[in-house]
Amino acid sequence: MRIYTSALAVVLAGTLFPQTSNAQTQENIFERQKQSAQDELAQQEDDMRAAMRPGESDEKKITLQTRQSSQYGAYLTDEQGRAVYIFEADSKGKSTCYDDCAEAWPPVLSKNPEVGQQLKKDMLGTIKRRTGEQQVAYNDLPLYYYAKDKGAGQASGQGVEGFGAEWYLLSPQGEKIKASGGEGSSKAGRDSQRKQ
Prior knowledge:
This protein is an alpha+beta fold. 29% of the residues lie in helices and 18% in strands. The chain folds into 2 domains: 1-52; 63-193, no CATH class. The chain has 2 helices and 9 strands, in the order H-E-E-E-H-E-E-E-E-E-E. The longest helix has 51 residues, at 2-52. Mean pLDDT is 81; it is low at 7-13, 46-54 and 185-196.
């Protein structure tokens, strides 16, 4: 009887335990696959949020420079010659442009901006947006791009009225440039931007 019982135990040990081991292995594989899928999904969500975030990454080094125009005189741009603007609805040190506004007028983002030789370094700074990014400011005025400007030398946002106020280029002295031009001269695009 004891021999039979021992033999049965050996048989059971040879059949049940491997199955248990296999089940655990399959469970471990499933958990790893599940974790990998979750990690991939989280990365995709992070990438999507980054792609949808307006403006440039606040890790990017921005260097403000000036560009000369026969129409506007000297005005501020980034290092690639892309025009930057101020928003009349903003107060010094505070941005009021978010959501739809920030899609049409992406904020210029950088934690450590710099200025070219033509600009005053003591007028350069950053403000903290409510979304957490650092937005570049000059003369304590938050700076923005215009989404419809496609490259260097374009300043189609000058004088445009949208989201409750007007948008202007900024002079090296930190003052808005009042010369008319861009879409603002015909007030085109005004109604399309009045989404508050």
